[in-house]
Amino acid sequence: MSADPGFWILQTLNALQLSMLLFLLSVGLTVIFGLMHFVNLAHGALYALGAYVAATFAGVAGYWAGFIAAPIAVAALGVLLYWGLIRRMRKSGPMSQVLVTFGLIFALLDLTRIVWGDIAIGIETPALLSGRVSLLGVDYPTYRLFVIVLGGVIFAALAVILSRTQIGAMIRAGVDNDDMAACLGINVEKMFFAVFCVGCALAGLAGAVAAPLLSVTPGMGLEILIPTLIVIVIGGLGSLQGAIAGSLIFGFVQTFGAVLAPQLSSVLIYALLALVLVTRPAGLFPAKGA
Amino acid sequence: MFRHNPLRYGTLALLFAGAVYAAFAAGYFGLEILIEILVLAMLVLAIDMVAGFGGMVSLCHGALLGVGAYAYSMLAVKAGVAAPVAMVSAIGITGALAWIIGAVCARTHGIYFIMATLAFGQMAYSYIFETPVFGGDDGLGGIPRLDLSAVGLDTMDSRTFALFALAALVLCYLFAVAVLRSGLGRSLVGVMQSEQRMRALGLVTWRVKADVFGLSGLIAGLAGAISAQHILYISPGLLNWTVSGEALVVVILGGLGTLVGPLVGAAAFVLLKHQVSEVTPYWHLVTGLILIAVVMSRANGIYGFIEDRFAGRLTAKARKSPDAAVPAKEAQNA
Amino acid sequence: MTTKAITALALAGGLTAHAAAAQDQIEVGLLLPYSGVYAALGNDIQAGFELGLETYGGEVDQTFNLHIEDTEVKPPVGLAKARKLALQDRVDVMVGVVSSAVLGAVSDIVAQMEVPLIVANAGNDEATGAACSPYITRLSFANSQVNRPMGEWLAGQGIETVYTIAPDYAAGRQQIGAFVEGFTEAGGEIVGSQWTPFQQTTDFGPYLTDAKSSGADAVYVFYAGGEAISFVKQYDSFGLKEDMPLYGAGFLTSPLYVNAEGPAAEGVIAALHYVPTIDNPENEKFVEAFRAKTERDPSEYAVHGYDAARALIEAVKTGATERSEIAAALSQVSFDGPRGALSIDPATNNIVQPIYVYETVAAEDGDGLTQKVLAQLDAEQMPPNGCEMKSIN
């Protein structure tokens, strides 16, 4: 809309920030799917729960308390969900999983309403990250920069773990062919459990990170669900590259679409999704064997 | 292959009798609930057709109902077309759209298919929401009901309208049975069991899927037109994916792949929802827990469970879980 | 449904005899959202309504029996519940409706069934415009009503160029449209507008960046609920407030959730028909009573309920107890309430009320945020907007 380079730089940063937030959410979901072939629609609800827990802790002991507490709390819930539900549903087809997790969405939605009420809650960005930073000729909110950096760090960490460590190798083996991996002596069950909990923790972290930016409302889980699903389907289920690719595509299309072609912007992302599904049904970078 | 058995006949008779009784015995609000059940029943019939017999789990059928509703309303209100013509056109438009969606998504399976239908449903929702001529978020009112005064019936009377809706439902049911019993329907079940095999036999499988999807769209379109006539008002919320999600819940609650089960599910769900919401505003929680329980119990919904119990005495294949319809390999392919 | 009987306190001293046909109990249907995104608003309106009945119920003999129904913010559900209230519960009057979409669905049958409806929130202009009816009386606000005077006021403050942002749906367009009218007529210039996808936008970064590059003197927006919280916080995080102050329709910093916005909301100036810090004796009474009842400050939603109860009681005072009588009486209601002097304009059945321009500031005792009233803009009668008010039989 303008020739001002500052505008483009700012929008690029906005797009990156949105991408990183979605990445945090989608990476958990996609690895869970790639490894366990389990579709967890309730991931959005876990994100919302993370935000609420963070808000509660932040109100008492400051932002960083919430930042730490949220992933732990959601991972703990993940443990419960795994033992109670997921373990039994693992061998079921996608429809059962969709329905069980759909039911979970409903249940968790009302649970958050019961515990925290209907009124929206807000939390403040921590003092350390408030204000703006001068970067590339523009002033950009420090907190958003933090989100970008955090996303990048987690991506790098996961990439290293997956490609350089033994655990990573085992996970990749499990994604490729879990029966074979089990034959080779890998404790696939335990691995799935660990991956699931880490995925939940990441969702909780995403919620804690998003809370100062957006508002914490009961509907936030449902709001973020569709974008997350779009991200992982476009990117390809099961792979880290898929998650980051999908997130970046969504982030950029959404951000630039919103200001350059506002009439089309809502239809645009769905059209893109449909296009990808029709031409590359498995997504852009699916994990092998997924 | 869809067959009737004594239990199904019995259940259908019971439901029909119940509906007629309710139409005459219920008060004003009872009639509202009855019509709500009837419209939902049509929608879930359409979904069961494609999901239960074709393995195509669709999250866009709610949007299709919305398309039918908007098509009818736009034609009848904005274009001044006569109601019967508008209804038929709406049904046709929805069916055509459903065929296109089915054809485009036919290449995808499992979770990808679900996502693809979700994408299309949301596209329709966004489009209708954003386009001012449809009234946007405020919706559209002043919708006329089908004028049956020529046969001496006043559709503005709730009872008459409820019976009208019931007649439409019966029509849809017979239509669905006809489709499923036909060669096309049997091919569909074959495709669900093993697409590869059917292709090897020379079948153009995407066409089969698209055709049945389109036919189910006709039912959804009729449901939409009736829904618009019932409420006399439409808004984009009709097309949101959560509507399709809830409809899917009903199908599972009733019994996937039985055609009769979803009808039972529709009645049960609507009645349950109203009972629970009178007691607490947190009925989502109750619905969610019940859904989880039903799915985890591996029973094929309420009706499916009953039918399985009596499987020995009936001829129909016993279905063990919602996913017995989708072979494990197909599921893993996702 | 849960029915609550609220018994009126008998006035000490004689009560004048009313017409022999008067009922002793008025059936009131409350049609509000108790689940979904507006649940908090529904609860606030009910609390205000009940408080109003408690406070003023003693002025009439009749008792009020409440029938409470949840619209779930869905037009079909709202419609079904409205029918239930009118046909099955046989209420004499209905109060409520938060969402304009639900109001659109309900208004047709309200007129058809001839049941009076006191609108306690929904602001779409048509309800007292092209779709007006003698049975619909609005005690809340109309979308244009809140924003037009603000446009004039802003121009009067020396702001020359404005950039607008709002969600892309009917209410958003009406609110901004009215502002633009008022602002441009007073000599201002709109340099850019953005419409964000309604309830699908969580990140306003792109729009804020665009606003910044426009170089406008100020930014005017309409957002409510969760979107308002996100918007205000993000606006602050981009540091735009110093160069481009933020103005808006008061729902942006509504007392109901302004505390969730935190310090980011400080300095935001908005226009609304009610804030808890309005300085008049009625308001002081109301705020105190509301705090005692709910342990929170009243919001504009609560005052809608409160004034709706007051209006109903005023109508009943004139001897109206049947549906058509109540509807006719409601059109003539006027009183001094927490918002100031209120009256109903019989030409449109919309409320006539002053608008307050206020700034959100930190509370003196350090506990949260409060509103500092900067100006009171005169009550304006809304233009008929296509309303041809029919009379009641």
Please specify the SSE layout and strand pairing.
The complex is a heterotrimer of chains A (290), B (334) and C (393).
Chain A: H1 5-36, H2 43-61, H3 63-89, H4 94-116, E1 132-135, E2 138-141, H5 142-164, H6 166-176, H7 178-183, H8 188-210, H9 220-235, H10 240-260, H11 262-279
Chain B: H1 6-25, H2 28-52, H3 61-78, H4 83-105, H5 110-130, E1 140-141, H6 158-181, H7 183-193, H8 195-200, H9 205-231, E2 233-234, H10 241-254, H11 260-279, H12 283-296, H13 301-309, H14 328-332
Antiparallel strand pairs in B: 1-2
Helix pairs in contact in B: 1-6, 2-6, 2-9, 2-10, 2-11, 3-4, 3-5, 3-9, 4-9, 6-7, 6-9, 7-9, 10-11, 10-13, 11-13
Chain C: E1 3-6, E2 25-32, H1 39-56, E3 63-70, H2 75-88, E4 93-96, H3 100-113, E5 117-119, E6 136-138, H4 143-156, E7 161-167, H5 170-185, E8 189-196, H6 205-214, E9 218-221, H7 225-237, E10 246-249, H8 258-261, E11 269-272, H9 281-294, H10 300-317, H11 323-330, E12 334-337, E13 340-345, E14 350-352, E15 355-362, E16 369-377
Parallel strand pairs in C: 2-3, 2-4, 4-5, 5-6, 7-8, 7-9, 9-10, 10-11
Antiparallel strand pairs in C: 1-3, 11-15, 12-13, 13-14, 15-16
Structural description of this entry:
The complex is a heterotrimer of chains A (290), B (334) and C (393). With 290 residues, chain A is mainly α. Chain A is 76% helix and 3% strand. Chain A has one domain (5-279): ABC transporter involved in vitamin B12 uptake, BtuC. Chain A has helices spanning 5-36, 43-61, 63-89, 94-116, 142-164, 166-176, 178-183, 188-210, 220-235, 240-260, 262-279; strands at residues 132-135, 138-141. Chain A has a two-stranded antiparallel ribbon. In chain A, strand 1 (132-135) and strand 2 (138-141) form a beta hairpin. In chain A, helix 1 packs antiparallel against helix 8, helix 1 (5-36) packs across helix 9 and helix 3 packs antiparallel against helix 8 (188-210). Chain A is globular, with a radius of gyration of 19 Å. With 334 residues, chain B is mostly helical. Chain B is 71% helix and 1% strand. Chain B is built from 14 helices and two strands. In chain B, helix 1 (6-25) packs antiparallel against helix 6 (158-181), helix 6 (158-181) runs antiparallel to helix 9 and helix 11 crosses helix 13. The longest helix of chain B is centred in the middle third of the chain and has 27 residues, at 205-231. In chain C, helix 8 (258-261) links the parallel strand 10 and strand 11. Chain C has a seven-stranded mixed sheet with strand order 8-7-9-10-11-15-16, with helices on both faces. In chain C, strands 1-3-2-4-5-6 form a six-stranded mixed sheet, with helices on both faces. In chain C, strands 12-13-14 form a three-stranded antiparallel sheet, covered by helices on one side. The two termini of chain C are 32 Å apart. Chain C has helices at residues 39-56, 75-88, 100-113, 143-156, 170-185, 205-214, 225-237, 258-261, 281-294, 300-317, 323-330; strands at 3-6, 25-32, 63-70, 93-96, 117-119, 136-138, 161-167, 189-196, 218-221, 246-249, 269-272, 334-337, 340-345, 350-352, 355-362, 369-377. Chain C has 393 residues and is α/β, with parallel strands linked by helices. Chain C is built from eleven helices and 16 strands.
